[in-house]
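Team,

Forwarding the record for the chain on the shared tracking sheet. I've put the sequence and predicted structure together so nobody has to dig through attachments.
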Amino acid sequence: MQGRVLIIAGSDSGGGAGIQADIKTVTALGGYAATAITALTAQNTNGVHGVYEVPPAFVAQQIEVVLDDIGADAIKTGMLHSTDILDAVVAALARAAPDVPLVVDPVMVAKGGASLLNEDTRTVLRQGLIPRATVLTPNVPEAEILAEMTIADEAAMAAAGRKLLALGPGAVLMKGGHLPGDQVVDLLLTASGISRFTSTRIESRHTHGTGCTLASALACGLAQGLPVDAAVARARAYVLEAISSAPGYGQGHGPLNHGHTMAG
């Protein structure tokens, strides 16, 4: 077991996304997962049916006691449901882990369409958390909100990525899965340029938790000492196989096979 990853995110009662997906992913890739839970959700493959917010001070306490004792080689943030929680997380990380690599997955909308991030929180996200990120991992709808522009093709995706990079993160991984086409194109933007990652699109309704899974896999790679581009490549390969071998559970957007690395 190598690489300690602290995951700050919400719980998914269906087990396909959120903290549950994060723990499975880090474990499957040989890392150690610790958590600070920001919200409890009542959800399944058909959507989010309820959200119960954890008090911000308790979110901060979870972060601080884990870092004080176990420590972390990388941190990943997911669902941060309110301005108060986001403020608490930003302050706790500044106090307890100012130099630890951070992957920010700006979770705003669930696969089923439910809003997971309050509108008032977006400015705080842009100004408080994104500039601290080692890697920001927005999908197209999230990038459209954060960059305040429409993204209809790869060129627009690159333009939005440059706008987000200007907010201060070390890198931006623009995920292109929402764009049409037989190929899925992801763009990794850094100060030195753009790296392009492509894969053949897998037609499947079992894609619940892909964003959480990719970001946690990326954080695990950083925790294990991989450079950003290599961590992205391994994370993408892990997610692709997890989609291809999905178990087929649920009536809606089903979960991935997070345990494929341990098959046999």
